[in-house]
Write a structure and sequence with these properties.
single chain; alpha/beta; Rossmann fold; six-stranded mixed beta sheet; 6 strands; 16% strand
Length: 166
């Protein structure tokens, strides 16, 4: 299981720069989720949940709004709700917390996740893995052909550029 602190990863990926409008944030979030969907599809069978902080003021409803975006389960915290607490609660519900990886740049959340037995990773570590994985290709099939795996070469190059790994 992969639990992602969506806002942390969004900012670490530098998809939001400076003062962003709501539309800029929505576009950046959609782009991040699209890239993650490619990664998850290539990994095959990887369970994932992306949790975003800071709800829309027009969303006064329950603590979290659930959605599926690009095939990924996503939770959007309502204003005043705590995405970190939701991530920790998800770890607590797991029978084997060692199988849970938590991606966040929030040190307190990483420490709390580790205390519960989960495997924390910084957003930068995960982005480096995501970028490296995007460049990988599946081994040849029995007929000798190669099937591309992960995101496209262009997307991998885009990630490399975004993170200064060119």
């Amino acid at each position: 299981m992969l639990l992602i602190d969506g806002n942390n990863l969004l900012h670490a990926a530098k998809l939001i720069k400076g003062r962003a409008t709501r539309a800029d944030f929505d576009r950046a979030r959609d782009e991040l989720l699209r890239r993650l969907a490619g990664y998850v599809a290539a990994k095959g069978g990887l369970k994932i949940l992306v949790v975003f902080d800071g709800g829309d003021p027009a969303f006064p409803g329950p603590p979290f709004q659930r959605a599926t975006v690009h095939g990924l389960p996503v939770l959007y915290a309502a204003r005043g709700s705590d995405a970190d607490a939701e991530i920790l609660e998800r770890i607590d519900r797991e029978k084997d917390p060692k199988g849970v990886r938590v991606v966040t740049d929030d040190r307190a959340l990483r420490d709390a996740a580790a205390t519960r037995g989960a495997r924390p990773a910084t957003a930068r570590e995960f982005l480096a893995e995501l970028t490296a994985y995007a460049a990988d290709r599946e081994p040849p099939t029995p007929d000798g052909s190669r099937k591309e795996q992960g995101i496209s070469k262009e997307e991998a190059e885009e990630w490399m550029k975004e993170f200064g790994l060119e």
